Amino acid sequence: xxxxxxxxxxxxxxxxxHSRESVDDRxxxxxxxxxxxxxxxxxxxxxxxxxxxxxxxLALMEDLQISRGVLGPVISSGLVxxxxxxxxxxxxxxxxxxxxxxxxxxxxxxxxxLLTATADSVxxxxxxxxxTGLGMGGAMPNAIALTSEIMPVRRRGAAVTTMICGFSxxxxxxxxxxxxxIPRFGWQSVFVIGGTxxxxxxxxxxxxxxxxPRFLRxxxxxxxxxTLVRFPVTELFTHGxxxxxxxxxxxxxxxxxNLYFLNSWLPTIMSDAGIPVSTAIRLTALFQxxxxxxxxxxxxxxxxxxxxxxxxxxxxxxxxxxLLIGMAGASPLVLGITIACAGLxxxxxxxxxxxxxxxxxxxxxxxxxVGWALGVGRVGSIVGPVLGGMLLAQxxxxxxxxxxxxxxxxxxxxxxxGVAVKSRHGDVSHGDH
Length: 433
Known about the structure:
The chain is mainly alpha-helical. It has a single domain, classed as MFS general substrate transporter like domains (Growth Hormone, Chain: A, Up-down Bundle). The protein contains 14 helices and 2 strands. The chain has helices at 20-24, 30-64, 68-96, 98-116, 122-150, 156-185, 188-208, 213-219, 242-272, 277-304, 308-326, 332-360, 366-393, 398-424, and strands at 3-4, 7-8. β1 and β2 form a beta hairpin.
């Protein structure tokens, strides 16, 4: 059997590094990059499907003759599924491994998206989006954990944030795809595309996606300092991690509330302001483009300063940018700049938060830590679109809407500062970074 840099070439579906030293103390191999690339592809289609409802909202409401108030729960049903998926699949992966859970989740949200294209009623939409969300919610924490564990600690920040850019890129591509295909083929075409791609990627992942070497060391008893735990959720509150865990949940809740509020309603708000729908969709895509830029910048910073202080600064930037969107009026140029800046802070901050959170928790509870943070955060992502629908239904002015949206970013800033201060005191047991 030929072994190259700790990877077995005899079975790429089960590729793994045979020692922790192979990860942290050696150059990055092509096999490691392949795993990260597969995770990036998975979160790419995850992002495409997660943003799809925002892009098809106007066409969907017209076709099924439903109001904005009804559409809010439809959007939120997918987010409920994402919450459940994150909570359940994060802990499951800490018991059986990242790879099988991740592939299974991709299959689930691919099938769910294809079924969404067949929906002809609100109840069908809610059911199919719930199923889709289950898969999407379970995929994200495991892609984060696997990337964090497959790469050396010295490149963890950049690796995770760059990989998560796949989500923002998928969401942005969704806008550029949706704008021309919806008028020609209907809103259903977006979900056909968003369902077919995950099924293809799942087949590729079954062939080429390796398991976490750090997880396998613990599972096989080759790491004397760690063991798998029966109830990983309780471990989030031991060894001084209780308060930081709660504050991390606050960060995820408030930031995802803002992210999904803007994702879901930006095109509609700009359309109401007199901007053509196709232009509004493209401007919303800049929110994701800004997020990609923010993630790349944060990744480089986090490789040097792996700290929640970096996130606090990012969320403060987000609060200012959201306020400026409300003051931009109907100028496409000014809106484009302010929306991209908001994406840098909100989406970039979310991506950076994944990197820092995955490093905060040890391997034995890493998927659980990230999964529960995302699961609690999904409550915010559910509340965001509903609050947005309520504000718009009441005729709230655009400026007041965005002033309200700045508040969650301010709360996220304070919570991130709290984690940074608590960690600096040295009474918190950190992960293996």
